[in-house]
């Protein structure tokens, strides 16, 4: 329900604010972890491995008279093949029409390409520097990052925060709110995202693959939910069938594992967050198929929903 104006206890009118906030930065800077913390729900896949986020992931936070529409994005990188090129296009496209951008940093200094992008953005929208993982980084290193990145004269504000402990989140939200335009809400206050459950479930299975498998294999994986059957009775489970695509026959064996044990572990890891998402018990059935070179073929990328 959109609200343009709300009356507070004093009898004065308080205008509602709403706007889009892009979370941007290099791969593995903590964007997805921050999105989940801000929304209070596990929407975006999170992994210690870089390049986990492949799509634009919106998450909504509505409180009092403010609606924040956060947008998680793929990390900025120099693309080496077609999938990475699509991811970069998605990240750049997510900046169009946003009201605020947060540049997340967990490394020491910017490169020339980042500086050029940040200077361009700063001329169009408020740009916040967000030093992430403050609970994991020594104070001296945080100071160096603050000094190095703060030297760029592009920031509307600078923040240190930990998405895991919540440190710094309130200060960031307050600063963002001041930059959002006064206008009605875009979404129902009860909504957390506009993504469908099939997409979110597939992302959670892919996250489980990242955590259960080796360092290189996850980048060859795509997950697609092929069947979703709602329970026929209250005592039934939601049936979800999903296919894990890999690029080579040898990778299929790695995902399945000896006697199917690795695929079972993936399903066991993915099921609890999916059940939280669905709000009830789930029967999750996983299959593995080979789709040769899908990450380098435009036809396959389009079929799998990677937009350009």
Query: Distance between termini?
Result: 32 Å
Q: How many domains make up the coordinates? A: 2
The total count of strands amounts to 11
Major sheet attributes? 6 strands, mixed
Q: Rough shape?
A: globular
Strand order of the largest sheet: 4-5-3-6-7-8
Proportion in helices: 25-40%
CATH homology group of the largest domain? P-loop containing nucleotide triphosphate hydrolases
Describe this structure in words.
- Helix 6 (197-212) packs antiparallel against helix 8.
- The protein is built from 9 helices and 11 strands.
- It has a 6-stranded mixed beta sheet, sandwiched between helices.
- Strand 6 (100-105), helix 3 and strand 7 form a beta-alpha-beta unit.
- It has 2 domains: 5-179, 3-Layer(aba) Sandwich (Rossmann fold); 197-303, K homology (KH) domain (GMP Synthetase, Chain A, domain 3, 2-Layer Sandwich).
- The model is unreliable at 1-11 (pLDDT under 50).
- With 308 residues, the protein is of the alpha/beta class.
